[in-house]
Batch of 4 targets.
Target 1
Amino acid sequence: MTDYCLELKDITKRFSTVEVLHGVPFNLRPGEVHALLGENGAGKSTLIKVITGVHQPDGGEIVLNGERVHFNDPRESREAGIAAIYQELSLFPDLDVAENIFVGRQPTTRGGLIHWRKLYAEAGKLLASLGVRLDLKQKARHLSIAQQQMVEIARAFSLHARILIMDEPTSSLTLNEVADLFRLVRRLRDEGTAIIFISHRLEELFELADRVTVLRDGYYVGTHPLSEVTRDDLIRLMVGRTISNLFPKQDVPAGDVALKVENLSYPGVFENISFELRKGEILGMAGLVGAGRTDVARAIFGVTPPTSGSIQVAGQPVQINSPQEAIRLGLAYVPEDRQAHGLIPPMSITANLSLVVLEQCARHGWLQDKVECDKAFNAARQMEVRASHIWQKARELSGGNQQKVVLAKWLETKPRILILDEPTRGIDVGTKAAVHALMSKLAAEGMAILMISSELPEVLGMSDRILVMREGRMTAHFTRAEATQEKIISAATQSVSAGDVQ
């Protein structure tokens, strides 16, 4: 009798002529949390899609509870007791919360119609057991990313799976939501559920996981008890080298004011937001998810213009009513949700990179393919985008490489002011270090950077100054020397009067 509820033996997977998994082994015990670790592009997502029947392996075998199995599709995997929460959310935007939780499995009446009262009762009971408060009848398209993540988690929990796969489940959650999630994961583990946990936040693994398996470039590197490895060990196993400086922030004298915001407001969302951003400066904006940070960024960039307040760019008053006007003024905005707002996933890397600079690729109104390709190739090379070719579709790239494409796209506009909303969400430690190095380089060259981040080490490590928001209001302002995690958390979770904001 095997000790494992799931065994993968020498799994191989190819896409076209490219082999992305090279004989990978993996095993999972009942009642354990087994972390799966690796850089973006290491093969983690492909491996879990093999487990869940999204992809069929080209070699090797899957053994479930001692018996060899083959899943032709995700339905067969779910029926075998395997549920997955993927990094890129998959809710139906025009269905409400309860419908998304039980989509395809709605309770029905004797006549075969959906039993709506039972549907909402069961959804409410499930969310209550998870400690999640959501309007069951709210459409998914109106939920924040954190709320969508909780609906995904609830949907997976509703399956009563014996094996649960969680791919970056905490990437958009607040500290309190992460604590609640970990409590639930431990409860499931104690009840015998086996959990595969993927996260780029290494500190989470040491808090939650029992063992870790590391992949690199599609190859199996090793499996270790978490108690026997350090953070530096994991980084070295993942990237094949030691990363000594994850936050390579250069000290740069702040220049003239590049962006000035005064009393910016949008009723019910944020109110009286004021700050200055200088050339060569990285201004961090911290706060819990839902504090209004993204709304402020979108208002500055003209996506949803504020109803009151003023904006100055390089000392000149401006009215920004659209992203096009923002771009002309030298602003660029890398959004939080790269799938929905940063990329057009079915389009190629080349098409995505040229979207905001099409005029530079055209002559007499006609797109010049060679100019577009040359620009895309150079931009992708400078950002070290890992792809088979520049015509590869953006949706086929790893999360880290997708983020590089988004960054490269906006840097092609040669901005003077760069707004980064969660610039390293869901990307591996190696890519994080590269993004941080790029930010530091751009600031040293005089670019003004507004960085929104929910990761406190990133905020503290990369910011010259830090603003903190809570419930649509600015509650604190710290210099780099003054800021600590405790001060930021306090300002983000407690009401602060206007007189306390420094």
Target 2
Amino acid sequence: MDYTLLKEVLAYVEEFQEGHSSNRIEDFTIWLNNKLFSHEPSDRRSHHDDLLIAFKLMFLNKELKKQTKSILSESNVSSIDEYSFLLHLDYIDSFRKMEIIGIHNLEAPTGIEIIKRLLKNKLIEEFPDKDDRRAKRIKVTRKGIRVLKLIKPGIDRVFTKFTEPLSLNEKIQVSAILDKLTG
């Protein structure tokens, strides 16, 4: 059996006990967490950790897309982005095209293609912006609302199942951490 990890942990325990009088595991855990994760990235391990986080986020994105695909295949909605456009348009009366594209952090051509597909399927409609003659606004149609109501329960189940292993506190922490990364 390889005891490399155990030896490393023991070295940390010795270092902690040299500078602290506490024997509580909670105090050691906090100290160890600060020791390992509060420094600026400076070594190869930190760079590896950065890559690992990025790859895990990409993996989670792909996993959610894969899990929602079967639900979306039963409708005129072909992607999670189209679903999200409809969902946003259901909450707000209308958006300028570039506003909703910006909300979704998409490149303009990609966002315009999503809008074209939604228009083609008559899930949204476009109309002139009364404040800016150059701009067009879009809003969800009755058909779009019906389609959204049909697929929303399935998508909600996928999202709920996806985060089910997390406690409420963990969900709040993950959300705050993701806000830091997207902020």
Target 3
Amino acid sequence: MRSREEMVSLVIKRAAVFCLPSVLLAVLGLSGCKTAPPPDPQSQLIAKGRDIFFNETFAGNGRTCGTCHPAENNFTIDPAFIAALPKDNPLFVAEFNPALKENFENPALMREFGLIQENLDGFDDLKNKFVMRGVPHVLGLRTSVASPGGPRTGWSGDGAPGDGSLRSFGVGAVIQHFTKTLNRVPGIDFRLPTEDELDALEAFQLSLGRQQDLVLPLRLKGTVPKRGQAIFLDNSLGKCNLCHVNAGATANFGGGSLGNANFNTGVEDLPDQPARLTTQTVPRDDGFHTPGDGTFNVPPLVEAADSGPFFHNNAIETIEGAVAFYDGDAFNSSPAGLALKQADPRGVGIELDGTQIVAIAAFLRVINTLENIRQSIMLLESSLSVSSPEERKRLLQRAAAETGDSIRVLEGGGLHPDAVAHLRDARRMAEKAVRSVFFNRKHTEAAIRDQKKARAVLVD
């Protein structure tokens, strides 16, 4: 049996971890836990933006920004995620709101291919003037929006009205996707975001994911990913780094940085596009501006492997298929492909063999996993410093989900089974931390250690 002194010592230790109620501490003659300092103004703005992003419907049809950009699915949606949603989810509003039954969404294409209807050329002819696009993730926006020609948002770089900025992106989203009827009358079908709400939404979106680009090459350990990185950086072979500098969204083609540039890569010319194999009408997507010039902007590649399907029309399912696209006729006959060929001293575009395609994809899978590990560790460490049980649970669940992505990305390429084993341990510890009260910190710290072990397998 423990003595009174031992019992007091045990309570002190547990109080330090779990911040026991001050009433219990007072009974034991102890002082209460110190309260955390108030958050700084930027953190408060980001928190406000998070609440708006996931909870604000703007008096519309029930959708929020998080309806199409859910945090638990890398801020995007795909057919597998859509299939698991309940029938009354606001994503399916066109299926149960008679006012939006026609010319608002195409439920068949949404459910089968994850495509959303967009009226980028205006709302005057809803039946004929529209495009079908996938949902781009909103991770790493701080590194992928800036361009000398103005901000680039959305697949074609013109996803926001007005000044085209990320701050204005919310305005376009509400008008396009939140309306109660096809009349789209502000104050009746929805309310427009206020200036303060737009500021908060921008701050939150800019806080998501990476805050800076990678610096390649990385000291990778895997044989195939290491070779993939070399091909990626070789401007006479893979040529990937010309348009995706450091696997980001910045182009450096033609002798200078173009920022987040637009290119016509021939994606619209791909034969057998999945959506066009159906009986549904899928107009040609004309890309940037109105009328469009056929170009689409450069997306970052660090987050690519776990955020497919790929390209603006979700035409290709796997990261290997996305890399292989650049070895095909559609790309090499496109304006971008011909420009690469013309710039090559040998007059060669992109010519890759099957093993080289797989190697580049392996490299992209590994850098995606490294980013997931970074985010997972950040979430786990953040969970140790919050006082709210609900917020701690949210952070731990996000960390577990990110770790699940890491596992799927590596296993999908048959890569690093030893790292996968550590990641499985990390996910199990994070899930135990969610359920635990007394050993939450212990399990969380164990999950952090396992994440670091997995990272050490991938890179020096």
Target 4
Amino acid sequence: MLALRISEAEIDWAVDQLQIEVVNSDQAHARQIGAIREATREAGLSLGDRACLALGLLRNATVVTSDKNFKTPKLGIDVKVFRSK
């Protein structure tokens, strides 16, 4: 694993600047993560990837990612893939 050596203060600053909402998993979220495991297996998505998709499902929200594999499973939510160059 690559250590970027970013301080907690720098992380807090970035989260604040980007207005990122930090969401704690609850029982409903955990169940949804488990429920989509089979549907996401072939795409090779990780637990963290499934957590993002599950939150999108629970909130009926668009999921934005740079990982094109997120579009592979057909989960009934909008997934927008962007590429930065």
